[in-house]
Amino acid sequence: MTKPFQRIGSVSNAQAGRDFEVAAKTFFQSQGLLLGMNLKVPVGVGALKKAHAFDLGCEEKKTLVECKSHKWTSGGNVPSAKLTVWNEAMYYFLVAPDGYRKIMFVLHDFNIKRKETLAEYYLRTYKHLVPSDVEFWEYNEKTSHAEKLALNK
After folding, report:
1. Which of 137, 106, 85 is nearest to 20 (CA)?
2. Phi, psi angles (nearest 5°) of residue 108
3. CA-CA-CA-CA torsion for 21, 34, 133, 115, nearest 10 degrees?
4. CA-based nearest residue to 16, from 54, 70, 65
5. Mean pLDDT for all residues in the chain
6. Is 1 among the domain residues?
7. pLDDT digits over 71-82, tens only?
8. CATH at residue 141
9. Does residue 7 fall inside a structural domain?
């Protein structure tokens, strides 16, 4: 039985996400940044805090990473529901402790019709929700390379 929202070629969407986290961890390791999985830090507004697990991180290097391997829909449309998860990640970065490097690590997925990647679309339409200290990195699965996106466009 096929699942209508299942990532093609993956055992499950959860597995696709875990595989992407491993790819991110491997990429940053090649750049000299050793990250662990599911780093928990206290987040919250005001004095009340609760532990939140970021996908990757390093307490010693004060680094937090959220990984998103979302793609355009099969018809080339905006995956609106998935981008709400990106907005949620921006909120967690906003309420994370000060002094951390914050990285949104996303899959490079180019839309020929729109002539932009999903990350470029997100930054064009939701930049007002991105905290000023968040870095966006786009990862190319074919080359295992990532590039930091300029946020001042």
Report:
1. 106
2. -75, 110
3. -40
4. 70
5. 92
6. no
7. 999 999 999 999
8. 3.40.1350
9. no
